Every structure is written in C-alpha cells, then in structure tokens.
Amino acid sequence: MIEKHVDIATGAGAADTFVCYPERDGPYPAVIFYMDAPGIREELHDMARRIAAVGYYVILPNLFYRSGRGALLTAEATVHESAEQKKMFGLMATISNGLIAQDTAGFLAYLDAQADVKKGPIGALGYCMSGPYAMAAAASYPERFGAALSFHGVPFVTDRDDSAHLMMHRIKALAYFGFGSKDFLTPQADIDILAAALKKTTLKYEIEMYDDCSHGFVFPQRPLYNKQGSERHWERLFVILRRTLG
User: Per-residue pLDDT tens for 144-170?
Assistant: First the structure.
C-alpha cells in the first residue's frame, strides 16, 4: 500500500489530505472519503486503507481545513455535552453542503492529475455529517460521480436552500442511503421527506434500514458501534463500488 499526506488546493486554501492506494496493478478508480464530524483520526485512516486494499485510490480530505490542520478534536467529541463536543459543533458550523461542493472541485482536479487514478466515474462516500456532503458533491458534478453513498448521514432535511433533499434531482450517480433504525438523529419523518424527494426523480437509489443500529454504528471506536451492522455496511459499500466504478 502506498500512503501519503498531500495538500489539495481549493478555492479557500489547501486541504490537508490522507491518500492511499495499492502499490501495483493500477491505475485505480477513485473514491473521495468525506470525513464524519469528529474529524481526521487514525480510525478514518484505517477505513480508507480497507477501501484502498480492494483496489481503489482513496483520498480523505480534512474538511475542517479552514480551521486548522490534522486532528482538531479528541475522542471526547462524541461525549454528550462535553467541551470537545461543543467545539465539534462549532467546527461543523463553519462548513456546509455548498462549501463542500466548492471544495470538491479541488479534489476532482487533484484526482485528474494523478497517473494512478483511472479515468472514469468516481465514488463519493460520507458518514454522519458527510452523508449529505457526498450527495452534494454528486449533485454538483453529476457527470463525474458513479456512486454516492451515505451511512447514518444527517441532516438530509433542513430549511436551508442547500438542503440535500432538494438536490436529489441533479444526481446521476447510483445513490445509497443506509440509516440505523435506532438513530435518534434521523427521525422517520425526515427519511420520509427524503424518500418523497427521491421518488420525484429518475435517480437509481436505495434506502436501507439497519436493524438495531444507532448513530455512528459503523465506527469501531464509537460507543454505539454495532459489529453486525458495520460489517454489513462494508459488504454493501464494496458491492456498490464494484458495480459502479469497477
């Protein structure tokens, strides 16, 4: 495996980014891994490695680059009402679907310049806060993305003009939404609004509920980690990437 840290130029500066891909037999289809709210950490690096190991060129940008480089939060960010969680919410408020769509232009330009990246459709992958970001990227650059996947993504429904549920008609990628059945951050009413928006499009999509899973069930170091749900998520992820990206 080849691993490196690079700075990717964006309209707002430079996003420090973890990159990994297999050492031989490239070039590889690309996957942009949009981080969750606790931010860049070794847990995400390990997930990026797992994706790359099966034949993908993965980039994991620090979406909080406007506020600093590298890990800006500790594990306490997932502790309810902790100082770190309040800091996390503050960082989350500095970015939006619209800003991430702008940043994605830089991510795509970087990928286009890499000899180890295969020409063709790209995957957008998001968790928690970045589930909507993956969809915003696919909606903003519909000709570039073959798959957009969200796992316990939130919020898909807001009263903002750039709410993710309002842009579904612009996506051409296969869109996948995996929700935990016990996720208090994604009430059924919001899922119903998202589903209604999807039904008005010609988009190929799937909404899947993960039984007995709560918010953050994919991550081994999260308190609500669900091993069965997490492994199922890996199965679904790899099947979709293989089907859409090769």
Answer: 999 999 999 999 999 999 999 999 999
Q: How far apart are CA 231 and CA 157, in angstroms?
A: 27
Burial 202-234 (b: 16+ CB within 10 A, else e): ebebeeeebeebbbbbbbeebebebeebbebbe
Token code pair at residue 70 = 């590298």
Q: How far apart are CA 214 and CA 194, in angstroms?
A: 19
Question: Which two structure tokens, joined as six digits, stand for 236?
Answer: 């679904």
| C-alpha span between 205 and 198 (Å, rounded) | 8
Read off the pTM.
0.97
Give 68-102 pLDDT, tens digit per residue: 999 999 889 888 899 999 999 999 999 999 999 99
Query: What CATH number does domain 2-245 carry, 2.60.120.10, 3.40.50.1820, 3.40.250.10, 2.40.37.10?
Result: 3.40.50.1820
